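Question:
Now give any protein.
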Amino acid sequence: MRLSIAPEVAARYPECHTAVVVALGLDNSGSWPETESELTELEAEVRAGRRQMPGEDHPAIAAWHDLLRSFGTNPRRMRPSVDALGRRLAKSGRLPRISPLVDTCNLVSLRYTLPTGGYDLNHIRFGFTLRQARPGDEHIPLGQPEERERPVPGEIVYADGHQVLTRHWNHRDADNTKVTENTVDAVLFLEGISPVIAPDVLEEAQRELADRVAPHASSVTLHTFDPAQETTVTWVPTR
């Protein structure tokens, strides 16, 4: 399996770093007690006013807003995932429980203020490419399996062939590659913009996510991706 970044995207955004966690042989059913306990505690702190979610003035959120604007996306309409997640928690005092793995990604995302998401590896055909949208691309939005969207050319997307996995860099995932309780093999991405999120902080978040997932998987491997150094990272899924 491969993650690649189009040369024009790598050249334009050398400050964007990606950390990858590949988890195989997952048990993503039931509950992961540590994740559930920490999410419940976080929700209680937010409701009590002891913890504030970062807003648009937070350097990490502001950096993503600037990045989205750079290719024509309005970040107040199509918010970066960590921004949307924090706003949801701040407004309702609670986060939805999706599955243990997704809930764990959300927890790590909020702890480090960086976008974190995952895909069911067994629904990926060719691999992951971060590139500009092209004619013929199609996106099935999360929660709307009957819908078909056509990303605007120039929008930055994650794609698997012509299947768009995530629109507006990390705003919204696809329904057909989402992680569910039945997911056995998954790939997780964590993204940071340097120097706001230094590479060592991104790697710390990556290690924490891997450590949280490892007890529930037969195999967990880590990969880092620096577009200033390389445009492709490849791994061989083995349990």
The chain has a mean pLDDT of 95. The longest strand covers residues 16-24.
